[in-house]
Amino acid sequence: MFKGILITKDDAGYRAQVQPIDDAVLQEGDVTVRIECSTLNYKDGLAITGRAPVVRRFPMVPGIDLAGEVIDSGNAAWKVGDRVLLNGWGVGETHCGGLAQVARLRGEWLVPLPDAFTTRQAMAIGTAGYTAMLCVLALEKHGLQPGDGEILVTGANGGVGSVGIALLAGLGYRVVASTGRLADAAHLKALGADDVIDRQTLAVPGKPIGKERWAGVLDTVGSHTLANACATTRYRGAVAACGLAQGMDFPATVAPFILRGVTLYGIDSVMAPLAVRQAAWRRLARDLDLAKLAAMTREIGLDEAPSVAAQLLDGKVRGRVVVDVNR
Hints:
The protein is an alpha/beta fold. It is 30% helix and 28% strand. The chain has ten helices and 15 strands. Strands 3, 4, 5, 6, 7, 14 and 15 form a seven-stranded mixed sheet that branches. β8, α3 (159-170) and β9 (174-179) form a beta-alpha-beta unit.
């Protein structure tokens, strides 16, 4: 038995409770990890609250991220004592995840914990920060350089946005943060934003094409925000889209793509190949300012996770949340 959050669904309804969990709940896997830390992402909030059908089988342990130590391995790539982390792969949705003290996993899903990070720091980064790094890599691969102009980061107070600002600013880009919480402007500027704008300037229906402004965009929001970001991106600029906080819809036209040669990159963190994951984590170890990471992070115990998950979906959580699963 071990402690964790267990999601169940039956005639009595949908429930997510912190409770003792029997090993029999865990699916098959060739590596068992004693988890030290997990985190809360937007998808975890949806899973725990049941506000969207994220969980595909029951019972389920949520948590798309985890970091800890291998305690049993039938996989030649891993041995007892190895320090590992995991992001995505359907964990917390179709396979029991990280918001518990133990996980049984497939060895090919794991990434070595970089020496630069503790398990707490790795989970302060989590899928949110790893996704932000994938966005930065896409913008770099496109050829964008710091001197090319402003980079827009939407959903700036969220996990992806916060880490994205810190990364881009550290690399020398001029960053403009879009947020619905202008009272947090000082915090966003401390992370590296040069300017902060009200998200409402982007969140309402706009023109098919607008005045050129952004050399690049890191978008976590989708819907009208993404459409407007594309419409105001400069000639041959790039937009990296990784989220849907405003919605899954994309009410846009082809005008930015055929008149300005704008490129829209879709960023998938869940099923990204191992080599891509390792490259992202190497860059995070090199480029992320750990003092800025600490400034955007709070830590909670496992018992607090369900209530904080609801707050996250309600837009009341700033930055990153680390979950210590052993307290």
